[in-house]
Amino acid sequence: MSSFSIPLTGLEASTEALDTIANNLSNMNTTAFKAQDVTFSDLFYQQIGATTSGNPLQIGTGTQVASTSTDFSEGGTDQTGNTSDVMLNGNGFFVVQNGASTEYTRDGSFTQNAAGFLTTQSGLEVMGFPAANGKVNTNAPLGAIQLPVVGQVQQPSASTTFSLTTNLDASAAVGTTFEGGPVTMYDSLGESHSADINFTKTGTNTWSYSVSMADTVNPASSTTAGTTTDTYTLGTGATVDPSTNLTITGSATGGGTATIAAPTITAGESLATYASDLNSALTTAGITGVTVTQTGNGLTISGTNFSTSGNVVQDAAGTNTTGTLTFDANGNLSSPGGNLAGIQFSGLTDGASNLNLTWNLFGTNGTSSISQTASASSTTNTSQNGFPSGTYQGFTIGADGTISAQYSNNQTATVGQLALANVTNTQGLTVLGGNNYATTQASGSASVGVAGSAGLGTLDDGALEGSNVNISAEFSDLIVAQQSYEASSKAITTFDTISQDTINMIH
After folding, report:
1. CA 11 → CA 3, 342, 491, distances in Å?
2. DSSP 8-state class, residue 100
3. How do residues 440-452 score in pLDDT, each as one tens digit?
4. Sign of the dihedral defined by the CA atoms of residues 266, 272, 275, 277, in that order
5. C-alpha count within 13 angstroms, C-beta hemisphere, residue 192
6. d(CA 83, CA 99)
7. Which DSSP helix (H) or strand (E) runs through 506?
8. Which part of the chain is CATH 2.60.98.20?
9. Which pTM does this prediction carry?
10. Which DSSP category does 237 fall into?
11. pLDDT for 386-438, tens place per residue?
């Protein structure tokens, strides 16, 4: 009896609408959730005759769910401040790998697993383009993005270039000196050294320069039969740096103790001269039982009941460390006409490789960073390209999806770039749950690219996309679906009453 089957289709359709609304409301706080809507269509019609004018007499058989559509409009922005969270602004989906299957998601609440791979909260690997030597290859096949693990060490990088932004006083008298440095450099082991760059005016529009490398020398200490020996070994050809401030405390002739002040050191002073000055200072202070000797590139302090403080600092042996700068009448550097290569320092006390440096006197635009004007000599900026070792501490994601690992030495390293994908027909995607989608024949195959290209959106690090559920609209739809359900239910009870009346008529 169609009187019952017709409202039953209404009850079923209204139930599916209520289920969809309930699912939307329950996912109001789900990251990047996309609300769904149900549309209906009527069922086939039975022709029971025709009017006298020939118009067909038709009776419908109910309703059915015609389609469920997904609202892919963008949700609100939730600023989390977590650098592993990333929001996709605009079109597209992140690409994730679930075993052998590729899936797609708008949920950018990523994390890092124990092996260093970037994953979703459910453990699916996030896919992207690999990087080699800091360069991303977007023509390479997609792969799982792997970052360093917490505590992993980034190897140091030796300095190879340096530069100074310096003005030299054109009005200074001949013989005037100016210290343009120091510049901190790093050797192949990550040890820091101070490079001192000094200028001396030698004539009109002419200055000489010198580059020296200060390197602290750590002593080797031993005690035999009550006699203590401290040995400082300098690199071959090294001289004593003026920053050396070693003092010695020992027993004085008249009783008690005495301390010698650090002797004044001139630039380029030999180790032999320095040893002689220390011995003279010991004699003047009346300190007995302590002797300073120099043998080759070694300085030895030996004796009883003495102690030292301060440091011995060497100027490492260098090549191509001196020269002349010539300026034109407008204060522009005219000679050398290019960057100064071949500056080398050897014999570093930590056993690192020789430092080979280029002084970048000119920028990429051809303008020199060294000038001469009639104003006080000054250095406003120094730079170099080396760095010490550091440990991995986290990562950031740029607007284009570039992922940069961050280290404790303030260095960053590009490890990959997030891939984004889109399809021709988003309504054809299958909703998998867990905020993921899969392509179908209806959606078409996914096209893959990077953020900000080919119609794909951009990324916002430290934020997540919220649900796009509109609570007001859902409550309005809920009332309509409830009334539809009640109306179909009322039709059934009415038909039931009519059926009982019919039965009663027979009896």
Report:
1. 13, 87, 10
2. T
3. 999 999 999 999 9
4. negative
5. 9
6. 26
7. helix 471-506
8. 156-382
9. 0.76
10. T
11. 999 999 999 999 999 999 999 999 999 999 999 999 999 999 999 998 899 99
Cα→Cα distances 212→51, 173, 190, 241, 267, Å: 111, 24, 19, 9, 9
Position 269, amino acid: E
Q: List phi, psi (to 5°) of 7.
A: -65, -25
- Measured CA to CA, the distance from residue 93 to residue 409 in angstroms comes to 34
| Distance between CA atoms of residues 240 and 486, nearest Å | 98
The one-letter amino acid code at 156 reads P
- Distance between CA atoms of residues 85 and 403, nearest Å: 12
Work out the angle between the directed axes of helices 471-506 and 2-26 (0-180°, nearest 10).
Answer: 160
Give yes or no for a cis peptide into 182 (omega within 30° of 0).
yes
- Beta-carbon contacts of residue 313 (< 8 Å; ≥ 6 apart): 214, 215, 216, 217, 240, 241, 243, 244
Question: 269: which 2 tokens?
Answer: 């002073």
| Distance, CA of 249 to CA of 260 (rounded, Å) | 7
Structure tokens at 274: 């320095």
Which CATH number is 156-382's, of 3.90.400.10, 2.60.98.20, 3.20.20.80, 1.10.1060.10?
Answer: 2.60.98.20
